[in-house]
Amino acid sequence: MELQPMVDSMVLVVTGDSLTDLKRxxxxxxxxxxxxxxxxxxxxxxxxxxxxxxxWSNFNDETCLMMINMFDQTRSGRIDLFGFSALWNFLQQWRxxxxxxxxxxxxxxxxxxxxxxxxxxxxxxxxxxxxMLVQRHGVRGRNFGIQLDRFIQVCTQLQSxxxxxxxxxTAMVGNIRLSYEDFLSSAITRLM
Length: 192
Prior knowledge:
Radius of gyration: 19 Å
Number of strands: 4
CATH superfamily: EF-hand
Helix content: 55-70%
Order of helices and strands: EEHEHHEHHHHH
CATH architecture: Orthogonal Bundle
Strand content: under 5%
Distance between the termini: 43 Å
Shape: globular
Number of domains: 1
CATH class: Mainly Alpha
CATH topology: Recoverin, domain 1
């Protein structure tokens, strides 16, 4: 059985696995809603308007741009249905993790909650470092902490920098030696 809604000659295929098909259909429907100019692509403006934190604030520009860059196969600054489907799955996984560690259901991750989440992900970071991340990326207000958009940004940047570190730490001793310019080049390549 094949469902054939078209988006720039892309076909949404029904596989017979009802959970997979439901996820694909949801991603397709959301893509259609987010693609406000009906171009068959999602740009930064459209993505930012579609993504909200628990307090109904839109995701920040940096996180949206980072996600566009992660899933933009053509390096055009926008994502097609396939990239969007991968982004949809990415967002669902991060949202579930965020909700798991937002134990007080404040819509923000505190320094303690962030430390627990990062430890669960395998990062051996100090509570002070996690508090510094919250101070740097947190939203001030009644529930001070990191909202979903910044949580995704922080975790993705940590993954990227950890991967860079592992690539350079060939002896796996926990130390690397970098020149200042090599460090800057690596950071710019990974984070911007």
